[in-house]
Amino acid sequence: MLNQYFIQITLEGLSLGFVIGMVLVSISFYAYLIYEKKQNKREKIDDFSPLRVLENYEGMAFSCLINEEWTMTYVSSNAYKIFGYTSDEILQGKHITYSDIIHPKFRNFVRDKYIEAIHNHQDIQLEYMIIDKDNQEKWVREDGHIIYDSLGRPLAIDGFIYGIDFYKRMLADNNQYKAKYQSLFEDLDFPIVVIQENQIIDINHSAINFFRASSKDQILKMKPIEMIDESYHDLFKSRFARLQETKTSNLSTLYKLKRFDGTSVIANIEGVPFFEDGQMFVNVLILEKDDERAFSQRLLKTERRNRDLILYMHEGLAVFQPIPDELDAKLVYANMKFSDLLYDQFKNLTYHKFSNLFDLLIKENYQEIFNHQDEKPLVKEIYQPTSKKYLQCLFYYNNEKELIVQMTDVTKEKELIRKYQEEKQTLDEILEATDTMIWTWDRSKNKLIYEKRTFDILGYDYDDQEITNPEKIMNYFHPDDRTILYQQLTSYFKCEIPYFSVEVRIRDAMGNYRWWMVRGKAVQLVDNIPLIISGTYQDITHHKLKDEEIKFLSMHDQLTKLYNLRAYHEKMDELDQDKFLPISLAIIDVNGLKVFNDALSHSVGDDLLVKTSNVMSSFAKESDVLARIGGDEFVMIMPNTPIEHAETRFKLIEEALSEERVANIPISISYGVEVKFNQRFTLHQIKDMADSKMYQQKFSGKDTRLEILKSIRHEFFKQNPFEGKVVNKVHELSMKLSHYLDLDPETRSVIEIASQYYNIGIFSIRNEIFNEERKFEKYAEIEYRKHVENGYRIILATYRNERIAMAILHHHEKFNGLGYPAKLEGHKIPLASRMISIAATYSRRMLLGESKENVFSYLEEEKNISFDPELVDDFIGMIKSEA
């Protein structure tokens, strides 16, 4: 199955490269964010960056391909700490593949788990063993996030890998210890009852027999006071309250206990507290007092056993007798662990002074310890520099005024706390550089807890009660998102999904909705039911808006904001159903777009398209689909619309467009309308029929392109009357010269049109560089020279005559080959171009006020340079003959 995914990845190589590129861009982006933050907060570490955070992070960050070898494309430097291999050795499998690093017995496990995660489109967290470079087996935990392409195919995995070998082994030791404890607990021949929060949670076999119960379940979940005779209730309450306050053992006390067979018994009870996962439990030891001698023997036996347990317990325990009139005490009893914790070996420390044993404590601590009167133990922490141990000491007094010292090695706990705090600080710094925040739902307190940044973003007061109330928070979610959120939570509470993840909109204080990515899972369970749920949430409004913008751009034409060709095809397929019959479809072509573009500029052509689309949009219904499917081509699909209604609508559109102006020229369109009223034809075929109708209309009447060209020419001459006079004069003289030379009708026809439109290309030249004298700066002349090519395209698009277009293209060529645009020389220049060049020079100079003699002299001087010498002679001869 992974091979199939790998083949897909190979085919989508560009997409994978893009994904990896985006990962690196994201890291760079976070680096930039933190760099900016560093500039504002100089008191922080100067060289901090997310890349450094990743490198200094306890775990290894990675990105890998989904293939048989799990080829790594990115590995942070912490790989060496976990695997013994450097990043370079693992990258691209240069020295070893990650598949080879995974322990053989876990390779299929890891692969199967990822196949399952890919199938369910879920993130993954798993623990497995690896073999490091020294051939040592180690446990690791992997948190993986699978990257998919737009079609939902897996591309790569990003994530973190942590070394958890220490925790695994500690857990194994703990389980082994618990098993030994349970075995000892069950095998003891005197009754023991375990109490938590004033409730019986466990008993051994001797206790079942003692209370003459039929089974363990008969006693479990009962309250201890229910097992005690009413006359002893007050005594029990006071003794149990003292035990809870002091968290130390109570002296043995006689109670009258009730049995399940209705009898009662006097028994000696001693409560011994112990702690697990931060919670206090109490072991209650019971000795039946049936006769004094047997009771004394069992009591002695129990005391010996307790003494042995104390002697070999994991905590250090010592008893000191205060020395009168001194701020000191002497040791009268200590178990083996006490000296081991202080000196890393067993020593007989009896009668050693407190001040000698605890020389690391300062004098103020002595005074505090020896003057301590509170029943609650005094807690101090000592660091042993020789053994590099942290020792937690509890100091309190018993009823005999002896100083009791309980000592525990908390070095491992301190190290774990240190690592936790470092990792938390690292994570907090990473999160602070992003939009990600942490939330907690405490179901026992019925309260939601957020970071303060949340209130700042949403604009609510920090002490707002409603937004922190789980029962009222739903009112802040967008109505359309409440169902999916409820479904995710329900699925999670039913254990159908490992965690919940949902994108929802939350209302801010201004009444606007912001998008959030909310994830969470239980961090504390009671009876397999989530009690405390925690997770992350991220303000993704900007990303969502970008996604929506990208989606809009992918489906809409950027200029007109109408649907584009892609959207048109999708909508056509959606609408091609019986329930939308009759479906009318219109194909629309904007007349003269190319003429507008070439003659007046593309910005004017864009204005033409926008105004046309706006008018058509105003006539479109909400159910209609209006799309731009080509440069000047539009389509409108009108579901449940007879053809008569569609044709009437387009007549109104045509009238409305004729009232619109672009460069003071009315807008016109050609269109064709067809209808689908049954399943005989598809909408695609109906579109082709409408297309044919449109072309019939386009070519059946006047040539709109010529009409538009004449309108453009007319508007230009209205704004530039001198140019109009020049062109009219050039046209008049060119036609006279063609008759004077007795040219053939076809050539005269070319000259007829070319002499009227030879300068049509200057209509698109910027007004600021245009002048009547044709004197330009260097760069302005370069732009001006483009008018001959513009004119060529305009005439070719309207008249579709190559000879006319060529006459206009080359009317600025010079006879000596130094003209433009093609540097043609002599008779290679079209005859019409040579004639227009002479007529245009003569007309402009005469209209600017030069004398005829001066103009003739100029024409004579430019023979064989700018002008055809024979045509100059003919032209001057024609002018003189008219005089």
From TrEMBL:
Keywords from the UniProt entry: Membrane, Transmembrane, Transmembrane helix
Domain HD-GYP: 701-883
Organism domain of life: Bacteria
Record Pfam families: GGDEF, HD_5, PAS, PAS_3
Residue ranges constituting the GGDEF domain according to the UniProt record: 581-710
Entries under Gene3D superfamilies matching the protein: 3.30.70.270, Hypothetical protein af1432, PAS domain
Any Gene Ontology biological process: regulation of DNA-templated transcription
Cited CDD domains: GGDEF, HDc, PAS
Descriptive protein name: PAS domain-containing protein
Species of the source: Hujiaoplasma nucleasis
